[in-house]
Design goal:
- This protein has 143 residues and is α/β, with parallel strands linked by helices.
- The protein has 2 domains: 37 residues, no CATH class; 100 residues, 3-Layer(aba) Sandwich (Aspartate Aminotransferase, domain 2).
- Helix content is 39%, strand content 17%.
- The protein contains 6 helices and 6 strands, in the order H-H-H-E-H-E-E-E-H-E-H-E.
- Helix 3 runs parallel beside helix 4.
- It is globular.
């Protein structure tokens, strides 16, 4: 217990050899080239939004059933969260309503898997591809 508390106050939970090993192990598990970890989901989403050049005046579509962290990260990036209806069986975005929310100012779509229940990611990706809008897949609750 003391060791765990000491580690909370050091930077080795943010960076360092153990975090690098974790990221490498996660990348290997996923079969992807590189993984990045963040100490909070809002930081990760904010970093993704900034990488996509989301800025004031832009819109990001999110499911209406979500954690406050998701719209907050969008607001911190200067954009406006646009809520779409959810599928009650999945607690995630209803693809038809999501597509109806797309405007010329839509810069990204957040596809969220909630309570370990997969969203209709294939349909959401297809909508994103048709409209040339990046889809951010939030898998935090599915791992």
């Amino acid at each position: 217990m003391r060791q765990a508390l000491r580690r909370l106050w050091r930077n080795d939970l943010i960076e360092g050899a153990e975090i690098s090993a974790y990221e490498q192990s996660f990348s290997k598990y996923l079969g992807e080239g590189k993984s990045f970890s963040f100490c909070a989901g809002r930081m990760a989403l904010y970093a993704i939004l900034k990488t996509l050049n989301v800025e004031p005046g832009d819109e990001v579509i999110i499911p209406a059933f979500t954690c406050v962290v998701v719209p907050n990260a969008i607001i911190y990036a200067g954009a406006t969260p646009i809520y779409c209806d959810i599928e009650t069986e999945r607690f995630s975005s209803a693809p038809r309503d999501l597509e109806s929310k797309i405007t010329p100012r839509t810069k990204a779509i957040v596809a969220q898997h909630t309570f370990g229940i997969p969203c209709l990611i294939e349909e959401i990706m297809e909508i994103g591809n048709q409209h040339n809008i990046p889809v951010i897949e939030d898998c935090a609750h599915s791992l």
